[in-house]
Description:
The protein is built from three helices and twelve strands; from the N terminus they run H-H-E-E-E-E-E-E-E-E-E-E-E-H-E. By secondary structure, it is of the alpha+beta class. The protein has one domain. The strands form three sheets. Strands 1, 6, 7, 8, 9, 10, 11 and 12 form an eight-stranded antiparallel beta sheet that branches. It has a two-stranded antiparallel ribbon with strand order 2-5. It starts with 11 loop residues before the first helix and ends in a 7-residue tail after the last strand.
Amino acid sequence: MTADLTSTITPDFLKILSQTAAAYRQGNKPPTAEVVVNALLQAEKFGKQQRLNYPFSSLIGKWRLCFATGTKKVRQRGGIVLGKGFYVPKLAKIYISFNATTEDALVRGEIANQVQLGSILLKLTGPAQYLGKKNLLAFDFTQMQISVFNRVMYNQPIRSGKVQSEDFYNQPIAKLPFFAFFLVTGQ
């Protein structure tokens, strides 16, 4: 099922997350971190219950990180719990981007993660593959670039570089870092 949250009554979590994104962009006071973490948990639960499915094309683009939760493992239950959450200071511009390189059932693509602080830019790139039925995007960073004042100072493979990216698509998804998407909107 592909998500279309606009045709139904807007869930509270979607209102909160939309307000959060708008407030961050416009410089207004956003909801508290606790409210945002709770809205994210509700969105994840809703996505699982509705078995929402997103095509890789809905992820293509450059996305700015404005809020992060972090996770912590819980020993008693063996599960993972979200951290308290925090807003990323606007001084630090953090982006993640996705590009497709094929249109097959196992969509292959590229991921880029960049952090800019003033005139310094750190960018990590590498291969990605999307498992649409599970809304999972596995990735690996294989290249690092550091620029100062838009001038590339360092651009090298990290770890085993090209060999790693060639072997990436043969790795089991369980052995790779991944993102699980439970809500995708234009915001």
